[in-house]
Amino acid sequence: MGTVVTVCMFIGLVYALLLKFINPIHQFPPFVHAVVGGLVTAAGAWNVFWYASRHLMTFWGLAALVSGIALMLTGFYIIKRDASPTLIKTITPVVLLVLFVCMMLYGITIYRL
User: Can you say how many angstroms the Cα of residue 76 is from the centroid of all Cα atoms in its chain?
Assistant: First the structure.
């Protein structure tokens, strides 16, 4: 499941960066935003509510908690970018940085296995 979550982190990161910095992505139909955002949010929810809740006192449990929260915030941003609260819009660069660091941590660890 770590590989699936890592791929979801990559998809969410790339899509959110495209939303933030490149305008042509706004031409996608709203259901594309909903599907991508829903996938990213679901992966984050799985990380937080299933893995992290069972392994909270371990390194990977804490990593799952942090990456899950970052994934869910990124998913919410993707789904409703224009209607996002000001707080979400303000912290989006930090959340994307955290998501990138988590993606690298997961990716390098999976590669080494």
Answer: 9
Spatial neighbors of 4 by CB under 8 A, at least 6 apart, are: 43
Q: How many domains does the chain have?
A: 1
Query: In the numeric block, which tokens belong to residue 35?
Result: 């599907």
Altogether, the residues listed in the chain come to a count of 113
In terms of Cα–Cα distance, which of 21, 19, 15 is closest to 7?
15
Block mean pLDDT (10 aa), the chain, length 113 = 93 91 72 94 96 94 97 92 80 95 96 90
Task: Look up residue 17 and give its two tokens.
Answer: 């960066």
Cα–Cα distance measured from residue 48 to residue 32, given in angstroms and rounded to the nearest whole number:
24
| CA angle in degrees (0–180, nearest 5) for 30-7-93 | 65
What global pTM score does this model have? 0.90
Rounded CA separation 96/93 (Å): 5
Segments forming the whole domain that contains residue 73: 2-112
